[in-house]
Amino acid sequence: QVRLVESGGGLVQAGGSLRLSCAASGFTFSSHTMSWFRQAPGKEREKVAVITSTGSSTNYADSVKGRFTISRDNANNISYLQMNSLKPEDTAVYYCNAQRPGSVYSYWGQGTQVTVSS
């Protein structure tokens, strides 16, 4: 059974930091590209960061570049999103996603709420 379980969300003041974790099981984690998305109320889901299966390459949305860092631990099947210098506009539910390159299918976690107060 495929599972992606996010954790680490919460309430933080502007300028603060959080680290989100995504624990994966039930599939070959090291063969999948991992991404983090977020969705704020009334807005579409937005991809904020992606990391290749080996961790050799990453990419970020302009809105988080220089503040967020995506990483992965293939030995323990975990993806991380380190979020620094948080802003109120970063408030959203954050989701992790796993997709095998070339596949149209992907797996989603249940999401974790991040709230940044001003």
Provide the descriptors you would attach to this structure in a database record.
four-stranded antiparallel beta sheet; globular; 0% helix; single chain; seven-stranded mixed beta sheet; mainly beta; 118 residues; 52% strand
Structure description:
This protein is an all-beta fold and 118 residues long. Helices cover 0% and strands 52% of the residues. It has no helices and 11 strands. Strands 2, 4, 5, 6, 9, 10 and 11 form a 7-stranded mixed beta sheet that branches. A hairpin with a 7-residue loop joins β9 and β10.
In short:
The protein is mainly β and 118 residues long. The protein is built from no helices and eleven strands.
Give the helix proportion (percent range).
Answer: under 10%
Indicate the overall shape.
globular
Alpha-carbon Rg, integer: 13 Å
How are helices and strands ordered from N to C?
EEEEEEEEEEE
Largest sheet: 7 strands, mixed
N- and C-termini, Cα separation: 40 Å
* Total number of helices: 0
Structural class: mainly beta
Relative strand content: over 45%
Number of strands: 11
Instruction: Compute the average pLDDT.
Output: 97
Low-confidence region ranges: none
